What we know:
Helix content: 25-40%
Distance between the termini: 12 Å
Radius of gyration: 17 Å
Strand order of the largest sheet: 1-4-5-6
Number of domains: 1
Number of strands: 9
Shape: globular
Number of helices: 5
Largest sheet: 4 strands, antiparallel
CATH class: Alpha Beta
Order of helices and strands: EHEEEEHEHEHEEH
Amino acid sequence: MDCYSVRILRGLEEKTLAHRLLYQVYVEELGWIPPEGNPSNLRIQPSPIGNILTDDYDSVSIQFGGFYGENLIGIHRIIPRINGRLDVEKYIDLPKFLKNDCNYEFTRAAVKASFRKSPIFSLMLAAEIKYLSKRKCKYIVSTSTFPEPGNFFCKLGATRINYPEFKYHVSDPKPVSLIVLFIEEQEHFNRLFTLVDKLKQKGKLK
């Protein structure tokens, strides 16, 4: 019986699969095209398996992949600073406490349409939190629209920061808010870790 698994993607082939999934969800499904000259240098690029979405942070990212059996069904990544800046800092100034102590950002989540109601995103997030905890990370920042999926992220342990909303591009339909995950405060993630334990007990998670 196939089950879920999550691991860090390594090597060009696996990472290209992740970038291909990102393209399939954002461009083919949602019809979104990265604006020309965007600060992230997010761009469509050809590859041996078809067009992909890639940006400057892909060279340093820790790319997590969620699988069902052998099939990649979800992706999410952790990025560190490049030249002293996270991706979000190319668009706004972060609050002072995040500038000083936050060295990582969550970006580029994508899940295949047929698995959107599955637990795979939660499982990827749980794996990422454990990864960051082992590295003594205090916080990680991300962004989200509200009410959804922002409220969903908050149920999983994120905190919405009281800070001005912004748009990555003037054409974006909705602004985003800053969200922060306080990695040291593991009790915020009890819901996630309980889900992981239950799926392992049922043999549905490797």
